[in-house]
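Reminder to self: tokens first, then the designed residues, so the page reads top to bottom the way the pipeline ran.
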């Protein structure tokens, strides 16, 4: 009988990359002061015996880092391993444990480049496992349950945090001290409660199987950088980033991706020299940048990121630039993904 239920359960692989979900503090009171990326995946899995009720789980330590230090090489390495596993008939779903600082970037990257309808779920925690009311155990349990569920297939890369199922495309870390940290401006897709998923909506943007990007054909990612807009800003950072080789600069703009009049001439020049200029917004609850609003994008040949925040715009720009150098194509991709 035991063998029978084991066979019916989905096979889920947990790829561990580090972060607070693998963190450890000196005392249980240390919910915010601790070291990230300390605990190995075997120990994390062993700490949640209930996982064996929702899936046949095995772990793989892909890296052990705090996610603010993740590089494009790390992204490619992880993406390639996810693709290999997704191709295996013995794997039904994949979970990635990840630091929360750049979790939204990795989730969006995988959402763009993984050609599979198998569930891929990215998860982290806001408190280390050593802390009182640690959230990692339940987040990971939920992630495995969602990754093992047939209902999760074909919904793009997902993120499970704080009982919610969110789209990897537009989820973002909105606060760094609460367990209710991850939100999408467009709301969660569903809830996961006691290992069962409850779905309410679906992503509308192209992803995974429906995406024109494929990790297997991406050899490297071009240099795309972000420069921040604020009062009294100068054009120094923009020029320096271009000089150091940036192929595109994401303008993390104020409000509607607005650009200071002190910066506009430099951005016009940079575009003429071949650098793509992409306007996004750093407003907190979700920017929404429209073409030719605030700045004449048609005239300057700039691109707008619409609802993608600057760090997500960087991810799409890198992936898009592996396919095209044409600003119109780039803009199409920013509307479609
Ligand atoms: N809550 C977290 O995971 C933050 C820890 C660390 N800065 C990271 O992103 O990996």
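Designed residues (337 positions):
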């Amino acid at each position: 009988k035991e063998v029978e239920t084991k066979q019916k359960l989905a096979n889920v692989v947990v790829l561990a990359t580090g972060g607070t979900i693998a963190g450890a503090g000196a005392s249980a009171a240390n919910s915010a002061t601790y070291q990230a990326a300390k605990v190995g995946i075997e120990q994390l899995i062993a700490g949640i015996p209930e996982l064996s009720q929702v899936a046949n789980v095995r772990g793989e330590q892909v890296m052990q880092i705090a996610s603010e230090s993740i590089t494009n090489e790390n992204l490619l390495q992880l993406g390639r391993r996810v693709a290999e596993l997704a191709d295996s008939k013995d794997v039904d779903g994949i979970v990635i444990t990840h630091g929360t600082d750049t979790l939204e970037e990795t989730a969006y990257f995988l959402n763009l480049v993984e050609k599979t309808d198998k569930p891929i779920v990215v998860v982290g925690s806001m408190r280390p496992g050593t802390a009182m009311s640690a959230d990692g155990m339940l987040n990971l349990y939920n992630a495995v349950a969602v990754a093992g569920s047939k209902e999760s297939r074909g919904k793009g890369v997902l993120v499970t945090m704080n009982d919610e199922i969110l789209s990897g495309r537009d989820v973002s870390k909105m606060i760094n001290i609460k367990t209710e940290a991850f939100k999408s401006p467009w709301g969660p897709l569903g809830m996961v409660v006691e290992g069962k998923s409850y779905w309410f909506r679906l992503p509308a943007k192209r992803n995974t199987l429906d995406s024109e990007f494929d990790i297997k054909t991406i050899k490297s990612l071009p240099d795309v950088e972000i420069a921040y807009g604020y009062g009294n800003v100068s054009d120094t950072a923009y020029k320096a980033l271009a000089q150091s080789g940036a192929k595109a600069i994401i303008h993390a703009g104020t409000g509607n991706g607005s650009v200071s009049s002190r910066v506009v001439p430099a951005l016009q020049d940079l575009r003429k020299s071949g650098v793509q200029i992409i306007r996004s917004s750093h407003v907190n609850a979700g920017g929404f940048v429209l073409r030719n609003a605030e700045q004449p994008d048609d005239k300057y040949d700039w691109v707008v990121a619409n609802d993608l925040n600057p760090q997500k715009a960087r991810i799409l720009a890198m992936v898009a630039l592996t396919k095209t150098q044409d600003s119109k194509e780039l803009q199409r991709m920013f509307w479609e993904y």
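The mean pLDDT is 97.
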